[in-house]
Structures are given as C-alpha cells and as structure tokens.
Amino acid sequence: MRLLHAIALFATLPFAALAVGSDDSDPPKPTQTTTQCKNGEVWDEAQQKCVPPQHNDLSNDTRFRAVRELAWAGRYDDAMLVLSSMTEGETDRVLTYRGFILRKSGNIEQGIVAYEAALKLNPHNILTHSYYGQLLVEMNEVDAARVHLAAIRADGGQGTWAEASLAHAIDTGLTYTY
C-alpha cells in the first residue's frame, strides 16, 4: 500500500509546485518581475515597467503573484520586500507567506511565529498546516507534523497539494524547495 501511495504521489509531482497560497499547481512562469526588475520591484503591466512594490496601481493579488514568483526563484529578500508592501494587513495568507519566506531563508523561529499567528487567525488554513508541517519534518519533529496532516484532512483537505506534499514529507523526510 505504501508503495502504491508513493507511486501515486510521484506521478503527481509535476503538479506539486503549488506554492504559497496559490491555487495554481504549476511553478510560476518567469515574468519581467524576475527577469528585469531588481531590488523587490514588481512589473506593472499598465506602465510596462518595474515599479516599487508600494506603487498604488498594484493590487494585492499582483503583489502576491510577485511574492510567489520571487520566492520560487529563491529571491527571498525581494519576496519579503514585496510582501511587506501588502495593504491587507496581517491576514492569515500574508502570515503564511511570511512564514514560508522566513523558513526558506533560514529564519526558522520567526517562521514558526508567523505560521502560528496565521493559524490563530484561521485554524482551518490547510496551506499553513502543510508548510508548518513541512518545517517540522525538516526539524525531525515528525509526530508534530502528523498533527498538521490530521488537521488538513479534518478540514476537508484530502486530495489537495497541501495534504500530498506534507504526507510525502512525512513518508520520505523530503520537503519541497518551493
């Protein structure tokens, strides 16, 4: 049974790049944000140029797409600059993104604080549970990660990337770079 689970999971790995709060299961396609913009700037389609992330014409969704793209490219400092420009406040999705970026940039304790704050706001955020659980696997706290997997399943997350990626991490000890 475990072998069948592993085969099924590996068959879905091309779709396992779901990242930081996106419903898209594909890696973000590089845009001018990562190919031309520097220092946390974001490509503004309307102006056809790179603009500071605080630019008034950028929506939070545009900023989130930029955070995702920058994080996927390993540009965590730039991703954090863009995330810091979010105008929606300390929502669970902002805190989840913050936890992910902090975790991936090596700030484990701060990442934990962000994940826990996100879960305090929304204990049913399955993406937060997945990323937090993967962090726990990286820390060799597999039993604690299983608690997050159970929460994902209890909140209707069966069959989602959040469940599959955490289950894979628990089974193999390997987490996703993104």
UniProtKB/TrEMBL annotation:
Signal peptide residues on this chain, from the entry's feature table: 1-19
TPR repeats (start-end): 92-125
SUPFAM superfamilies for this protein: TPR-like
Pfam families cross-referenced by the UniProt entry: TPR_19
This protein's UniProt keywords: Signal, TPR repeat
PROSITE patterns the UniProt entry points to: TPR
Keyword Signal annotated: yes
Stored InterPro entries: TPR-like_helical_dom_sf, TPR_rpt
Signal found in the keyword field: yes
Listed name of the protein: Tetratricopeptide repeat protein
